From TrEMBL:
<dbReference type="InterPro" id="IPR027291">
    <property type="entry name" value="Glyco_hydro_38_N_sf"/>
</dbReference>
<dbReference type="GO" id="GO:0004559">
    <property type="term" value="F:alpha-mannosidase activity"/>
</dbReference>
<dbReference type="GO" id="GO:0006013">
    <property type="term" value="P:mannose metabolic process"/>
</dbReference>
<dbReference type="InterPro" id="IPR011330">
    <property type="entry name" value="Glyco_hydro/deAcase_b/a-brl"/>
</dbReference>
<feature type="domain" description="Glycoside hydrolase family 38 N-terminal">
    <location>
        <begin position="1"/>
        <end position="72"/>
    </location>
</feature>
<protein>
    <submittedName>
        <fullName>Lysosomal alpha-mannosidase-like</fullName>
    </submittedName>
</protein>
<dbReference type="InterPro" id="IPR000602">
    <property type="entry name" value="Glyco_hydro_38_N"/>
</dbReference>
<dbReference type="InterPro" id="IPR050843">
    <property type="entry name" value="Glycosyl_Hydrlase_38"/>
</dbReference>
<dbReference type="Pfam" id="PF01074">
    <property type="entry name" value="Glyco_hydro_38N"/>
</dbReference>
Length: 73
């Protein structure tokens, strides 16, 4: 996931592209889902970039619920 702390949308695209290249080079796969684990707000570009532009199947924003986490242990 790219940095969202006061970055320009071009930086978001560049950081995401770099991350996807790394995953492709190292694991020979393409991410299909995004999870922003600890969001403190996000820009409108975030959802658009990860959904429409990257074609992710799903995007998840927020921490996992403590009850759900306990069930998964």
């Amino acid at each position: 996931m790219h940095d969202e702390a006061t970055v320009h949308y071009i930086d978001m695209i560049d950081q995401t592209t770099l991350g996807h290249r790394f995953i492709k080079d190292q694991f020979n796969t393409t991410p299909r889902a995004g999870w922003q684990i600890d969001p403190f707000g996000h820009s409108a570009v975030q959802g658009y970039l990860l959904g429409a532009e990257l074609g992710f199947d799903s995007i998840h924003f927020a921490r996992i619920d403590y009850q759900d986490r306990a069930k998964r242990k």
